[in-house]
Amino acid sequence: MDTSNAFQQLEAFLDSQIIGQAKLVNRLMIALLADGHLLVEGPPGLAKTKAIKTLADVIEGDFHRIQFTPDLLPGDITGTDIYRPETGEFTFEAGPIFHPLILADEINRAPAKVQAALLEAMGERQVSIGKRTYQLPELFLVMATQNPFEQEGTYPLPEAQLDRFLLHVNVNYPSAEAELKILQLVRKEFKKEQTVNAPEQMSQELLFKARQEVLNLHMDPAVEQYIVQLVIASRQPEAYDKQLASWIDYGVSPRATIALDRCARAHAWLAGKDYVSPDDVQAVVHDVMRHRLLLSFEAEASGLSKDDITDRIIELVPVA
Q1: Using CA atoms, how far apart are residues 147 and 48, in angstroms rounded to an integer?
Q2: Are residues 124 and 221 in the same domain?
C-alpha cells in the first residue's frame, strides 16, 4: 500500500472513532507527519486520551499515559539509576518517556522541574541521567493536555517552554448530531459489537517514508515568503498597523517559521495535493501562533484573543 492511501485510511478510521473532533484528528496526523508535539487544551471528556490511544493501536509503536500531579518527580518520567546490591553497580531503569507515543495528561498540574524534564526530552530527543545520555526512539510524539478550568494549584507552562510544542490545539464540545453518534458508538462498544474495522497496522518504515514525501512536497518561493512575512508581521507589527502594534508585546520565534513550513506541507499532503498553497499556511497558522504570541495588556483588556490577533495579521499580510 502506498503512503497516501495508508494515511487516508488511518485518518478516516480515527474520524470514525473520535467523533466530532475532526480538527484534533487532523492536527494529530500533522504532528505525526511533521515530527512534532502538540498541546491540546479543552474541557474533560472530549476524547483527547482516546485519540492518541486509538492512533497507537493502528501504528507500530507503544503508548504510555502519564498523569501529571503535583507530587510527580522528574525521575518518574525520565527514569533513574537503580542500585543493584547483588552486583554493587547502578543500572538504568528507563521511565515512560522512552515510549514512542506519550500522553502527558494535565501537564500544567506538575511542578516546573517535571515539566522541564519532559520538555527537554521533547526538544533534545534524549535524556541525561548522571554521566550518561540515552537516546529516545526515532518515532517520538508527545500529546500534552491542559484543562482550561480549575486553574487553582496548577503550574502554567512558561512561554519559552510552550514554544517547544509544534501546535497548540483548542478542542470544543461536539455538535448535537455528533453527540448522538458518540452515544450510539459507545453503546455498541459496551455491547462489544463490531463498529468499524481498523486498518492494517502502519509500520514505522511507512511513516518515515511519508515524512520524506511531505518534506519533498513542492513549495513555491512566493509561499515561503508569505510564511516569513506572517512571522515578521508578529514581530514588527508597526510596519503594518499601529493598532496591531499596540496589541502585541512579543512576536513569534523562528520555531514558528519552521512549524508553519512543516505543518503547511503536512496539511497539503494529507489533502492529496502535490504542492503547498497559501490556503494550507492559513489553515494551520492559528495553531502554530496561538502559544507563541505574547499579547499586551491593552489587547487583553479589550477582550482580544490570540486568534483575533492572528486573524488581523492574516488580513494585513498580502497573500503570495
Answers
A1: 11
A2: no
pLDDT below 50 — which residues of the chain?
none
Taking a C-beta distance cutoff of 8 angstroms, is the pair 40, 171 a contact?
yes
Q: Is the same domain home to 119 and 81?
A: yes
Encode pLDDT of 37-57 as tens digits. 999 998 888 888 889 989 998
Altogether, the residues listed in the chain come to a count of: 320
Looking at residue 99, its pLDDT comes to 93
Which CATH number does the domain housing residue 37 bear? Answer: 3.40.50.300
In Å, how far from its chain's centre is CA 109?
Answer: 18
What element of type H or E holds 233? helix 221-235
Residue 1 confidence (pLDDT): 62
Collapsing DSSP states into helix, strand and coil, what is residue 245?
Answer: helix
- Residue 153 burial (C-beta neighbours within 10 Å; 0-12, 13-18, 19+): exposed
- For residue 320, the model assigns a pLDDT of 65
Question: Residue 186's domain spans which residues?
Answer: 3-190
Count structural domains, the chain.
2
Rounded Cα distance between 91 and 68, Å, is 26
Q: What is the spatial distance between Cα 73 and Cα 108, in angstroms, rounded to a whole number?
A: 14
Same-domain pairing of 253 and 113: no
- Count of CB atoms within 10 A of residue 59's CB? 21
Cα separation values, 240 from 52, 231, 317, Å: 40, 12, 8
In this structure, the dihedral spanned by the alpha carbons of residues 272, 273, 278 and 281, taken in order and rounded to 10 degrees, is 40
| Whether 165 and 50 share a structural domain | yes
Q: Is the pTM for the entire model greater than 0.85?
A: yes
**Rounded to whole angstroms, what are the CA distances from 20 to 44, 95, 116, 188, 284?**
14, 34, 33, 17, 19
Tens of pLDDT, residues 174-224: 899 999 988 988 888 888 776 677 888 899 999 999 999 999 999 999 999
